[in-house]
Amino acid sequence: MRTHSKETQSSLIPETALQILKEGNERFVKNLKANRNLLQQVNETSAGQFPFATILSCIDSRTSAELIFDQGLGDIFSIRIAGNILNEDILGSMEFATKIVGTKLILVLGHTKCGAIVGACNHVEMGNLTTLLNKIQPAIFNEKTTTTDRNGSNTVFVDNVTALNVHHTIERIKRESTIIAELEQQGNIKIVGGLYDVETGKVTFYE
């Protein structure tokens, strides 16, 4: 598997970048890793990096983006934070990744059985974690289908909130970053959501 160069990065369109991630996840699920020399990629990326995608995912130890999408060194920008929430610093990192470095895709990736989502659904308050979990509250508010047992023990409710949290984060990216919104409007990037299943390894994409 080749290391991305400026030329290969520039030649990609957003749809192709998404397809690369889909194919990588298919390999991961089938336990078929691409043949790549990581030490060689260390040398090939030493002078510069040309990743094709920016992925915002959870810190959950089961959801390493490089692994579940079968990518190598220099392929993706991986931003990880509990609950795959958004803040100013993450948004700035995304602007750097897309506008300056030239990634073609932003993926907001949630996952099943997310502890941060469960904590938010249970209205957990603990130090600085309280502020983080409060950012998930809009997704909880927008979950209108569950009328009883609106807590972390209700798996259907948690799953619905998890999906809504991904969509809410995407909406915020577009609303709060004119840089990224313009890149998307010009067709230079694509912004999509996804859900990783911790039981199967499969990613379902929200396009």
Structural notes for this entry:
The protein is an alpha/beta fold and 207 residues long. Helices cover 46% and strands 14% of the residues. It has 10 helices and 5 strands. The protein has a 5-stranded mixed β-sheet with strand order 2-1-3-4-5, with helices on both faces. β4 and β5 (203-206) form a beta hairpin. It starts with 5 loop residues before the first helix and ends with a strand. The mean pLDDT is 95.
The major β-sheet equals: 5 strands, mixed
Shape: globular
Structural Rg: 17 Å
- What proportion of the residues is helical, as a percent range? 40-55%
Helix/sheet category: alpha/beta
Please report the distance between the alpha carbons of the first and last residues: 27 Å
The largest beta-sheet arranges its strands as 2-1-3-4-5
Secondary-structure element sequence? HHHEHEHEHHHHHEE
List the helices and strands and how they pair.
Layout (H helix, E strand, L loop, with lengths): L5 H6 L2 H16 L8 H7 L8 E5 L7 H4 L7 E5 L7 H14 L3 E7 L3 H7 L7 H6 L2 H6 L12 H22 L1 H8 L4 E7 L6 E4 L1
Parallel strand pairs: 1-2, 1-3, 3-4
Antiparallel strand pairs: 4-5
In short:
The protein is α/β, with parallel strands linked by helices and 207 residues long. Helices cover 46% and strands 14% of the residues. The chain has a five-stranded mixed β-sheet, sandwiched between helices.
Q: Which short descriptors sum up this protein?
A:
single chain, 207 residues, alpha/beta, 5-stranded mixed sheet
